[in-house]
Amino acid sequence: MTPKWTDAQIKLIREQVDAEMSQFAAKMTEVQTMIVSTSDGRPLTAFFSTSGDKNRIGAMISSLLAVCETASRELVAGRCLSAIVSAENANVVVLRVGGTNSQFVLAVAFDAKLMLGTALRMTHDFGDLVARIVATPF
């Protein structure tokens, strides 16, 4: 069952995730964009190395993951753990924070020059960090 948070709890989660996101992006200069949104596409927090519309991107990332989850089921491949978009200038890794039933989605776009395995590992590590923040009792 999905937890129901108060506005104050969501604000605290947002502040903690935003602080961690800023530190992560400062360490990983290859990060172009990061967003944590709800599974229905509402953005919690985001980082952009340039400009971006977090509402629009949150909705698209949520839809992308939903399509991947449906495709995984149709292909009898099991649950979708993550999705990767490989583009000319970036690799985007998308996953549910804390597992397949989570209410939160994380997407990180890395410079395409960064090895894909590194991008995948770093995204999963950051997702685990966000999952711990969300799991912290209030």
Counted up, domains total 1
Helix share of residues? 40-55%
CATH classification, class level = Alpha Beta
Name the poorly predicted regions.
none
Give the total of beta strands: 5
CA gyration radius, whole angstroms:
14 Å
State the major sheet.
5 strands, antiparallel
Strand order of the largest sheet: 2-1-5-4-3
CATH homologous superfamily heading? Dynein light chain 2a, cytoplasmic
Pfam family, one: Robl_LC7
Organism: Pseudolysobacter antarcticus
Protein name: Roadblock/LC7 domain-containing protein
Domain Roadblock/LAMTOR2: 18-110
Quick structural gist:
By secondary structure, this protein is an alpha+beta fold. The protein is built from three helices and five strands; from the N terminus they run H-E-E-H-E-E-E-H.
Description:
The protein is α+β, with helices and mostly antiparallel strands. It has one domain (7-135): Beta-Lactamase, CATH 3.30.450. It has helices spanning 7-27, 54-74, 116-135; strands spanning 31-38, 43-48, 82-86, 90-96, 104-111. A five-stranded antiparallel β-sheet has the order 2-1-5-4-3, with helices on both faces. A hairpin with a 7-residue loop joins β4 (90-96) and β5 (104-111). The longest helix has 21 residues, at 7-27. It is globular and about 40 Å long. 29% of the residues are buried.
